[in-house]
Amino acid sequence: MAAPRPSPECCTYSFGPFRLVPERQLLLCNGVPVRIGGRALDILALLVRRSGEIVSKNELFDFCWPDTFVHEANLKVNVASLRRALAEGSDEAYIATVAGRGYRFVAPVKQEAPEQAPIPRSSVASTRTLPKPPLVIGRTTEISRIASVLADTRCVSIVGPGGVGKTTIAIAVAHHELPNYADGVCFVDLSTVGDPQYAIAAIAAGVAARQSSEDTLSEVIDLLHGRQMLIVLDNCEHLAPIVTVIVNRLLAKLPTIKVLATSREPLRTVSEHIYRLPTLDVPTESQIITAKEALDFAAVQLFVARAQERGSYELSDADAPLVSAICRRLDGIALAIELAASKTITFGVPTLLTMLEQRFLLLSNGTRAAPLRQQTLLATLDWSYRLLSDDEASLLRLLSVFAGVFQLQDAVAMSKAADFDAAQTIDTLERLTNKSIVGTEYHGGKLSYRLLESTRAYSSERLADTAERGRALECHARHILASFERAAEERAWREKQDWMSDYAGRVDDLRNVLAWAFGHGGDQLLGIKLTAAAIPLWIELSSVCEMQSRIERALIAGHDLGDCPADLTMKLIAARASGMSFAQHLAPATEAAWQECYRLGVTENSTEYQLHGLWGLAAYLIYVGRLLEGISKLHQFMAIAEAQGDWPAVAEGNRMMAMAEMYIGQVGNARQRLERLAARHERPKDPVRFARFQAERGVGIRCSFAVVLWISGDPDRAMRVAQAAVDRAAATGHVVSHSNALAVSAIPIAIWTGNLDDAAKFLAMLEENGRQEDIGIWREVCRFFKSALRAKRREAGGAAEFKARLHDLIAARNLLRAPMHYSMVAEALLEAGAADDARELVEQARSLAHAQVANWCLPEICRIAALIALHTGNRQEAERQFGLAIAKANEMGALTLELRAALALSRMLEAAGRQAEALDLLTACCAKFSGDAAWEDLAEARNRRQRLSTISEASASYA
After folding, report:
1. Residue 15's beta-bridge partner residues?
2. pTM, rounded to two decimals
3. Based on CB atoms within 10 Å of each CB, which residue in 116, 277, 347, 360 is the most buried?
4. How far apart are CA 35 and CA 18, in angstroms?
5. DSSP string of 266-303?
6. How far apart are CA 938 and CA 415, in angstroms?
7. Crossing angle of helices 524-540/507-517, nearest 10°?
8. Given phi > 0 = left and psi -120 to 50 = alpha, else beta, which region is 495?
9. What are the residues whose beta carbons fall under 8 Å from the beta carbon of 902, sequence distance 6 or more?
10. What is the pLDDT of residue 541?
11. Which residues of 499-625 form beta strands (DSSP E)?
12. CA 577 to chain centre
């Protein structure tokens, strides 16, 4: 029987020195990957599969751009790019144009089976932030030279005037060098960072280490330690001093990292190699040039390519000298050429040259302090700007206030500063986009607008030259405030994903407005209002540190004003209390902050903030081991929530109450509460919710349920639920919820059940979260459990380190599980042979458990005390402590702890020759568990019981 024929996508096609692997989106020339765009690869794949046939333009559009309308010029540009790429590898012609019909692949093609597919010489490392490879014209030599320099030095700065193409070249170099970096390339666009203090935050976000309160740069260094990576820092000139400091420290601390920067001036770092990027080649004025000859020059190639993107245009012999003159006038600067070329279809080349010459000569009469080539770009921007009508120029100036992308409604709001109505704004914006002054892009299916960085900077300067700047900044501030106030209201009813899509991208505008509001001549009250309105976004972004610093600034401003509205103060106080709860060292002042939040809620008749204050206060009290006081506050919380019919709050109260009940030893009650809650929140389509009480509700319920399942005798299910909590939190993208799921349930349960590989995996996740967002509360927890893992694996020095980490954990006032943590360290010390130290810690654990009424861990404390007594030869005391452990666990319904104690006692009884007692003990204990349970301690107990039973039967038979 013949083997099935492989699909075209799975085959490899050979022609000349080339091999095409469509399945991998890979084109090789003599075994080396060829850098061409994805659309060009798609075109090549279809042509090659139908080698010798005419493939119509419509077929190519349907294959490469399905369900999308694109202009025919896009196809021409990509075919031209494809031809150039193929021409570099061979002199042979591959693609023929069939006039009026389409294209034909004319070279012989050999089809190979999938297993014959070539393997590239080097694998390409994945990258998260690097933009797609750009269409680069006439820069092959520069890319090769920069790549060569980068191979021999740690830091390369591509320096040149604005618009020369530094970013394009940097991206191209990054893609060229990507195979040489095992951990990929990180691209950081600094163009939207308006304040030097956020440069580190932008770089941290680029490498997935979003924020840090104490030393963000150290967190970045920790994250990148040992990684082989290229960091591309784009548009550094406005942040040069701080970027220089950052780069120097990165290079000093990270020997495997390299930096590629773009800037209008050198950074002057310690090991910087400056590569001054030349302008594009242009024909000389003395040359009499044909169209074919003109296209040998990169500047002309770029002009023609960009003109074709705007419509049908072919360079003629008549236009060739005119286009050459335009490129000369623009000094070969890529951006200037692109701006000019975009007007070709509208004005025609002869008129374009005339207009450019007039504007250029006019502008050259003025004096400028900028370098000559920068003057040329400014002249081009001036020229484009002066072509605009008054309403277009006015709107462009106003749009320059936005830090990045903006939507139509944003433009309408800003146009009020120019007294435009909505219809006039829409019409004007459309004209600006048609003229390529304002760019368009899609995010999540929504149309957005953006100014090129150079256009935005230029327009911002023009705004500063007018009397409208103050009004524009205030209008922008009030618009951003209205947006965030609307966001705060919509949070109550909108889907989280849609809400985040609309507002998460507003962070840079938020920062800019806050800087204006609290700066000289700003509006402090507006800044306070905006800070309060932005709290929900900071919470959903897990930007705890930034939120805390902003809150403190707003509270100071409110104090200075003297008459800050009480409702604003209430919101700020609540957010500050929440931020304090995440600190590495939990301050006693946190309790007062939550009390103040509740008091203001009462004063302002706000049940929401009464609930928030009581919940935070209860959580604080429970966390520091004041369990009974915390339960009292929870009763008060639930009474208000039930009276208001606030059932989500009631659910959160029940979750917290269940945990408090478990800690005081009411395990059965806790499990019943959580079984009911979990039944309502384990549905497959349970929606992701906002983090109203610090963590997402579905994640919080799963975390608590997992811990209760573990202690009540279902460790296998506990691990599954803990994993579900981690997975759900990861899907939400909420770092706080994810860290809670890991630190509260997944990591300790994995340690307690002996799943050490899972524990290591979860710890790595928590460490990664710490690099992204500095949530201090979990820092010592992470270190503690890393040491627990070392101790469990019997690594040298693990137990001593575990003890040291315990002291750090207690010093940070992480007290809720302190008795259990003391007993864990005591057992590790005993196994390491430090019985005296173990005895001291277990007594401290017992004392602390009684002080906190933390009855849940008493069985463990008694079990470890028994092991210590057994180790020192006091078998009578050991048996007594084992008995206490079993009795206390049985009384609470803590079946897991009961089994652990029973298993340890059975070992002692068997060693003493009391096999019958050991068998009876294990038989009674194992009978309490379902037959499909298979966790480590239960499996050992069942095997031991079976062995003892066999021995007993054999003895009876012998008798």
Report:
1. 18
2. 0.65
3. 277
4. 13
5. ----TTEEEEEPPPPP---TT----HHHHTTSHHHHHH
6. 71
7. 150
8. beta
9. 886, 921, 922, 925, 941
10. 84
11. none
12. 25
Matching residue, tokens 């049985």: 890
Q: What is the mean pLDDT of the chain?
A: 84
Which long-range contacts link 599-604 to residues 24+ away (Cβ below 8 Å)?
Answer: 600/566, 600/569, 600/570, 600/573, 600/574, 601/570, 603/566, 603/570, 604/566, 604/567, 604/570
On the 0-12 / 13-18 / 19+ scale of CB atoms within 10 A, 369 is: exposed
**pLDDT score of 38:** 61
Asked whether 71 and 311 are in contact (CB, 8 A), the reply is yes
List C-alpha distances in Å: 863 to 254, 720, 868, 910: 47, 27, 9, 17
Q: Of 919, 426, 422, 927, nearest to 713 (Cα)? A: 927
Sequence-ordered strand ranges (E) for 301-376: none
pLDDT at 150: 92
User: 69 or 635: whose pLDDT is higher?
Assistant: 635
Count CB-CB contacts under 10 A for residue 631: 20
Q: 345: exposed, middle or buried (C-beta count within 10 Å: 0-12, 13-18, 19+)?
A: middle
Angle between helices 422-434 and 390-399 (to 10 degrees): 90
Quick one: tokens of 677?
């809650």
Say how far apart CA 854 and CA 842 lie, in whole Å: 14
Who's near 918: CB < 8 A, 6+ residues apart? Answer: 905, 906, 907, 909, 910, 944, 948
Element (H, E) at 259: strand 257-263
Strands laid side by side in the 95-98 sheet: 54-56, 102-105, 95-98
- Candidates 5, 73, 90, 86; CA nearest to 41 is 86
Q: pLDDT tens across 138-150, in order? A: 888 899 999 999 9
Q: What is the pLDDT at residue 371? A: 38
What are residue 96's DSSP bridge partners? 104
Side chain identity at residue 939, one-letter code: A
793-852 pLDDT tens trace: 999 999 999 999 999 999 888 888 999 999 999 999 999 999 999 999 999 999 999 999
pLDDT in tens, 633-680: 999 999 999 999 988 899 899 999 999 999 999 999 999 999 998 887
Report the alpha-carbon distance of residue 303 to residue 581 in Å, rounded: 58
Burial class (CB in 10 A: 0-12, 13-18, 19+), 780: buried
Q: Which residues have CB under 8 Å from 506's CB, separation 6+? A: 480, 483, 484, 537
Nearest Cα to 746, choosing from 697, 709, 772?
A: 709
Tokens describing residue 269? 């770092």
